[in-house]
Specification:
The structure holds 2 protein chains of 2 kinds. Chain A is mostly helical. Chain A has one domain: MetI-like (MetI-like fold, Orthogonal Bundle), CATH 1.10.3720. The longest helix of chain A has about 40 residues. By secondary structure, chain B is an all-alpha fold. Chain B has one domain: MetI-like (MetI-like fold, Orthogonal Bundle). Helices cover about 80% and strands about 0% of the residues of chain B. Chain B has 9 helices and no strands. In chain B, helix 5 runs antiparallel to helix 6. Chain B is globular. In chain B, about 45% of the residues are buried. Classes of the chains: A mainly alpha, B mainly alpha. At the A-B interface, helix 1, helix 4, helix 5, helix 8 and helix 10 of A face helix 2, helix 3, helix 4, helix 5 and helix 6 of B. Chain A: GO terms for molecular function: transmembrane transporter activity. Chain A: It is found in: Cell membrane. Chain A: Its main location: membrane. Chain A: Belongs to the binding-protein-dependent transport system permease family.
């Protein structure tokens, strides 16, 4: 057990590490103990509060419809935002300033404002100006807000993807006489989207997490919102929170794992393409259990 | 034209947003650095804890965390964080939730920074007999911090935007005021433009300034 940051522990260090482990474990157990003791005192550990999750009605009436709405909003947002993002990403790389500059301004503007502001605006806008029924309005508002925000983030991802391609790709397509549109659609965009696929899937995590905003702010019946209805019925605040959090974490963990799997595939594909391909960047400190730094857009960290 | 602003404390709301941002930035920077230290450290239990923390928190919606601080921590656990009245209690809980969430991203940014420090630095440090804590605090972290100013700026910008989620538990920051205003006033587009402008003013200079700082302090290699 060693890493570049510390030597393989000798007898002294081993004793010290064990001491740290014991103290840390004691702290963890004390914290957990406090948390559980408080729950027991407030009666949140009663089996009656947990029991609904073992039977079908709670899932059928509350959690599964909520999850379905969360997924629906996330999928709709991604499907609409991706082409829009690609369009704006390409527009930002245009040779014509009158396309490039406005596209850049739009992208930077929507990236700078919180997605909640966009959702609130869309919700009120639909209420005042359209005949969308009040049951449908939250879904429309959530999807609109998410599309506006994520299209601009995806535009940056696509742009970074295109810029990361070797210049030989552009030169070669020009040499064989492709027009600019052909070069983009036949050569650059397919490669950029493949290279940026991990970043795009990671963005899906951000979208799934953001759908929960619509639930608290204007009653979009997604997972977090259905938790509230469920807890109102069974009076199980803490159990329902735990169950909903676990569902969210599992769902997003699945997406994250999918993204890192894609990333490994993309990397491997690059490596096997012959000696011309650039060698693995590295030479830095690879800490124990380090995953490779995620390529592409650091904006994937954002979002609630 | 801007008479719809009468009777609303716009600056006050943005001041709360700014306070939420700065306090959470401070706490998440400290907690995130500690997490990063645990994650690369020699004690397996701490490493496991930090890894689990980052993976769980990163995959939980911030909204769930913030709402939980109100309904779980405040109502069930009776956590007040030393606040006297409800307003400051929920403000502090929001700072707590935002810090706990953002720290996971700070930790990841720092760890990627640690990975950019050349191998020889840590090897040289170990060769002259420094302990893990010394290697980390004297040699590796100072260089790592200088290389992650850009990524940390992105985290800070995301945090600024994420403070709007505090509206979910009724903290009187910008998004909550906007919700109130667009429900009571007719000039929807103008109000939204004012708030959008407010956030552009808050986030854009951060990105530009820290981008410049990041270039200046980066270790030339």
């Amino acid at each position: 057990m060693s890493s570049v940051l510390y030597d393989t522990p000798g007898p002294k260090a081993r004793v010290r590490n064990i001491a740290y482990t014991v103290v840390f474990l004691a702290l963890l157990i004390a914290g957990l103990w406090w948390a559980i003791a408080q729950l027991a005192e407030k009666g949140q550990l009663e089996w009656a509060l947990w029991e609904p999750f073992t039977r079908l009605p709670a899932w059928e009436t509350y959690l599964l419809p909520g999850l379905a709405n969360t997924l629906k909003a996330a999928a709709l947002s991604m499907v609409i935002a991706l082409p829009l993002g690609a369009l704006f990403g390409i527009a930002r790389l245009s040779d014509h300033a009158w396309i490039r500059v406005p596209a850049g301004a739009v992208v930077e503007f929507f990236r700078a404002i919180p997605v909640l502001i966009l959702m609130l605006f869309a919700f009120q806008f639909y209420a005042m100006n359209t005949g969308i029924s009040s049951e449908q309005r939250p879904l429309y508002a959530v999807v609109t807000g998410l599309v506006l925000y994520n299209a601009s983030v995806l535009a940056e991802i696509v742009r970074a993807g295109i810029l990361s391609l070797p210049t030989g790709q552009t030169e070669a397509s020009k040499a064989i006489g492709l027009r600019k549109g052909q070069m983009m659609t036949l050569v650059l965009l397919p490669q950029a989207v493949t290279a940026m696929l991990p970043a795009i899937v990671s963005q899906l995590v951000v979208i799934v997490k953001d759908t929960a905003l619509g639930g608290v702010m204007f009653g979009f019946t997604e997972l977090l919102n259905s938790r509230q209805t469920l807890a109102a019925n069974y009076a199980n605040v803490i159990p329902s929170f735990l169950v909903v959090a676990v569902i969210f974490v599992l769902l997003n963990f699945l997406l994250t794992s999918c993204a890192s799997w894609l990333e490994r595939r993309v990397r491997r594909g690059k490596k096997s393409s012959g000696p011309l391909a650039p060698t693995e960047p590295g030479g830095g400190l690879q800490t124990a259990g380090a995953v490779p730094a995620r390529g592409g857009n650091s904006e994937t960290v954002s979002g609630p | 034209m801007f008479d719809f602003l009468e009777g609303y404390d716009l600056l006050g709301a943005f001041w709360v947003t700014l306070q939420l941002t700065l306090l959470s930035a401070l706490f998440s920077l400290v907690w995130g650095t500690v997490l990063a230290g645990m994650r690369v450290g020699p004690v397996p239990l701490m490493r496991g804890f930090a890894t689990a923390y980052v993976n769980i928190v990163r995959n939980t919606p911030l909204t769930v965390i913030i709402v939980f601080t109100a309904l779980g921590l405040a109502d069930v656990y009776g956590v007040t964080l030393g606040a006297g009245d409800f307003d400051s209690q929920y403000f502090r809980l929001a700072v707590f939730g935002l810090s706990a969430y953002t720290a996971a991203f700070v930790c990841e940014a720092l760890r990627s920074g640690i990975n950019t420090v050349p191998l020889g630095q840590a090897e040289a440090a170990r060769a002259i007999g420094l302990s893990f804590t010394q290697v980390l605090t004297l040699i590796v972290l100072p260089q790592a911090f200088r290389s992650v100013v850009g990524p940390l700026a992105n985290v800070l910008i995301a945090l600024t935007k994420n403070t709007t989620v505090a509206a979910a538990i009724g903290v009187a920051e910008a998004a909550l005021l906007m919700k109130e205003m667009i429900e009571n006033e007719a000039q929807l587009v103008l109000i939204a433009a004012v708030f959008a402008f407010g956030f552009v003013v808050l986030t854009m200079p951060t990105g530009l300034l820290l981008g410049w700082v990041g270039k200046r302090v980066a270790v030339k290699r």
